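INFO  loader      accepted 1 record
INFO  loader      residues=97
INFO  predictor   begin
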Amino acid sequence: MGKYNLRCNRVVSEKLLQKDFIYDSTILPKKKNNHPRETRVLHFKCNFCNEPIATRMSLSTHVKSHCREYCRICFWVVQDDESIDEHKNKQHNTDLK
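INFO  predictor   done
INFO  writer      dumping tokens
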């Protein structure tokens, strides 16, 4: 039995597989890049390492890499001279009693 060709949903011979699915990259046409590379606007910055970061979701992932306590509201990495409670009270007006 030959190999299954997902493109046309049938069993095909090795000869057809070679013709259809094995490409020589030297003969393929080169893609033209008509659009200049867009630069990504980096709206956020890690307060711990100052790395610029594009999205809030990326920042939330990034701060976890520092293995330190951080604010789950704004993703501020807590410094050695402050506590998470102090930060939340000062920055987010939360009164923790």
